[in-house]
Protein 1
Amino acid sequence: MTEPRLSHEEAMDLAALYVLGALTPGEEAAVRDHLGTCSLSHAEIDELGGVVPALIEAELAETDLVEPPASLRDRIMAAAAADLDTGRTAPAQATAPRAAPVAFPSAAERTARAGRRRTSPFDWALRIAAVLAIVVSGAYALNVQAQLDQARQFDQAVAAVVQAGSQPNAKTVVLATQTGQRGAGIGAVQADGSVVLALRDLAATSGEQSYTAWVIVGNNPVNVGDFRVDASGIRSFTTKAGDTPVGAVIAVTLEAQAGNTAPAGPIVVAGQAAAPPPSSG
Amino acid sequence: MNESQLGPRGRTASPVDDADRAVLALVTAGQLDALQELYDRYRTMAYSIALRITTDASLAEDVVQDAFLGVWRNASRYVEGRGSVKTWVLSIVHHRAVDAVRRRRPTTELPDREDVPPPALTLPDIWDDVAAGLDREQIASAMNELSDVQREAIELAYWGGLTQQEIAERTGAPLGTVKSRVRLGLLTLRRALGGDDGAPDGLAGEGSA
């Protein structure tokens, strides 16, 4: 875009129309360009832009709510899935077909995923905040006291992960639920290859049942520890030390008993160890 | 509900927004389920806004699809502190709907917004809190603070998606007048919506430009 450079005054003159999205694309690009290069204050743009949420509320207030057709969701999800296949940042398991039985990913799949994975622009600390936020907001909406206790419990679990994840070159992993399961979590890989995990929303174990954590490199799942979960569904757990390179899959299965050397139960949550953000620290 | 259950950044985020941010974080990580959750949270509002602006059901569907794909591809460009996820998502819908209408007007330069999020996104959190707490009457009464020409200019710009040249042609006012009407109108709205007490400093900046 080769728009003429705007002076600061010219750019600010367009600020109100800019925040309303009422500029032509060329004008808008010129304002953006100015904002990217000018060191003077543009506080008024923020001030003016602050009205936009109210305008949206006003717009909603004047709009008759109409349900979109159900087919629209399918279209959007199909388009988003197609997007994934064409090279968008690939998450650990989002490419798994929704209804397919969960299996340990093949080596080829993992290689393909690792190849598609770009360096995430996403600060992993925000992921922690995000997982926390789920708990906090859940606490607000549901059974307040019980949920808050859980939030605190999870908070402590997350604090352990944050501690581990803040070490230089610590790898991180976001564990997401697999089809038909519930659970979520985050983890950080320590220097000795052990993984500090904070997990939530897991079904409580009963009897001999046990969750087992696995580190999978190549086609070789290694049992790195067993643990049980109480009714809170929250668990802080540190796995055994081992080899946990970037790209290794960290998975948690629900097993009939502890100590299995190969997974027999379903994967509950899984994620892939990611390199630390390049500029972190 | 006070003390420690503030949002992760200590702001008094609404629980809804915290949950939205969590969902968006998972969208950023590329999780389709999270996109579907976000869609389900806002599909009705999004589609209704798109339908209102385009007055065309099939175009409205395209707009919503475009908007959510934009969210899917650009979730990482949403920055906390820029306002609520709801505002972000619905702004994208609004802008794409306006673009769709503009495309049908032969004289207008075709916007190619594609992956660019809408511009109005450097929103101080307080304004979302303010907006979230507003009811219909407060917004209506704030709109009533505007002069007729200010309201007309803002409506044409925001709801009508007209450019400054088009607003000038439509209203017969010079460009400079259009710009100052929109600006003063927004400042008036901001003051009216912010109430007397909680308005941040720098609000009365009308002499500064």
Protein 2
Amino acid sequence: MDLNYSAEDEAFRQEVRTFLEEKFPKDIGDKTRAGKRYSNIDNGRWQAALYENGWDVPSWPVEHGGTNWTPVQADIFDEECFAVGAPRMVPFGTRLVGPVIINFGSDAQKKKYLPAIRNGDHFWCQGFSEPGAGSDLASLKTRAVLDGDEWVVNGQKTWTSSAQYANWIFCLVRTNTEVKNQEGISFLLIDMATPGVTVRPIVLISGEAPVNEVFLEDVRVPKENLVGEVDMGWTYAKFLLGNERTGIAGVGAGKADLVELKRIARVERKNGKPMIEDPLFQARLARLEIDLKALELTNMRMLSEVGDGNPGAFASMLKIRGSELQQRFSELQMEATGAYALPWQQGPLEADWNGKAVGPDHAAPRAPLYYDRRKTTIYGGSTEVQKNIITKALLGL
Amino acid sequence: MDFGYSEEQVLFSNSLQKLLSDSYNVDVRRALVEDGPGYSEDVWKAFAEMGLLALPFPEDMGGLDGTSVDTMVVAIELGRHLALEPYVPTVVMAGGALKLAGTDAQKTDLIEKIISGDLKMAVALTEPGSRFDMADVTTRATADGDDYIISGSKSVVLGGDLADKIIVSARTSGDTHGEGGLTLFIVDADADGVSRETYALLDGRGGADIHFENVRVPASAVLGTLDQAWSVMEHVADQASAALCAESLGAFAKVNELTLEYLKVREQFGRPIGKFQVLQHHMADMVIEYEHAQSLVCQSSMLADSVDAVERGKAVSSTKVYLGEGGHKSCQSAIQMHGGIGMTAEYELGDFVKRMAISEVLFGDVDHHLVRFGKLSYLD
């Protein structure tokens, strides 16, 4: 047993740090630390910096631009990125649809879509969830019917992140109503500029509108935009959802949250002393830090024991714990801020805002972040669904 | 990075599992507790034969030069099989204190006997009024010529019932409370003035309150440096805590196995109760707690030998807090999911639950270690 990183891994960490020091746009890191919102341009600048270094699609096969990192290295990369305040890479092109096209797409599709994902020409969003299909995703109803050389698509997608920026959407669509739910679904790539596609933002309790409704009305999609085989989309979707090896636990994000929490607790005062010296607060902070360490070590166990294999129930455990921790961090940050977390301030979160915020500098983002983080135990397979997955494997009932 | 056992550790773990499965079952164990002597001398001798009692000691003293991770491998099995033998007090704690602070003469004299299975020891660090604060010491040792006279009382000493020799902390200078001015002494359990109230703990292992009334010991009984025992005491308590947490993890594995099995076989409303989602989710929570506890146990065992008191202390306190809360909650869930059968003394679940309670409380409960972690982490 040896819980230290190998010399090679440490050298890799150094390489990543040097790259971030030189190439990561510092103003984006400042935004992260100040709790300000990113623009789509910020994401593009960050992706371009990664692209130039050949690090934009690390998980892809080498012939398509991948890096052949070990799972531990990929994890180190994530952690270092969070430490400097890099935004999480928008996953839809690079981590989600890209690998599906690589594994199941035609040569023509690979040639058309993969380079466009990397150079930023195509910005993707994911059309899976529907108003009536949340945790029970396979019950989705958006219909695609073949008419000559085109699929005609009708239906509605929802909770679509980044649809306001995206120019392409990958959708799960029903192509067969005669079979079991899972067996009549196909995986279709749709140009958002096609007539019949309408995007409407959904404002969330955080005050932000990061997700959208996407309406599809008689949208005509070329036949060749279907990935793999007709009615096999559920298999590809499962591959896509299970494809995430790194970043499930969000350890890097948690460490950044901890730094911010301690910073707040040194500024805020209670009984004439910094909050961080209050025994009751210390106990709550300690619990969080201990749970984060347990998560970090368990994540490392998964990476070192499972490697490239199927992480199975491990992944579900890390998703559950990681998302709960993200919520608890935002909660304690908000509580540490006291009554100044209560003024509802959206302006200070915008990058170009020049006004004066109410309360201390750290106050404005607290409530929006707290409410935003409620999503983490819902998306990507809710906590309840993850627990079902864990016990299904264990009980075999 | 590697969380697995070495080949040697796998072999060691397997032979210990075999020994304990062959030697113990629920009836044997309960008879040892109820009819005495509270442990099995045969198993203790078998430990000696397989080298378990030699594990942490240096090779030149006949030891196997093992690490605290090796101790973890052993302790997990002791917990999983509910072994009663005083391994932690004798080998981990007294052995640890001797290794850290003993003179050559003390080591030669005592370690050889521990290894051969002829000497059982205990380490007495807490007092009736001190709760978990090892720096709150009223027991005093006063110099008298070349001797010291020790007076005071120690509480709930694990293995204190069986110990032939006791390592005891006493104040040699300073006020009642303080890390300075403390000294460790090695005292014969049958020395004049030593009396013991012995008892079984919740899980059947023995403990004792030990009273010292004008106990005269020679200067050669001092273990380590006069007035400066604190760092040794803290280190030994950390090693003991790490080992007890590993024991707890072994017992936790059994709690989960028993519960999982019960969910499959117990039928109500015409189906196995494991079909009910509420119970499935409780079970999932227990598995998640177990896996994360295991990660922390690995870390604290890894660092238990470290002389970096801050890193070691944070790792050990983390594990104590995590298992103290997550293990505790899981035990309650396990009993709840078993229903009435989980309440019966006959069924073994309660034995594992009680084993975990010992690890939760000895050497500091959750609150104690939360405060300690906070002090080590947030105060400059």
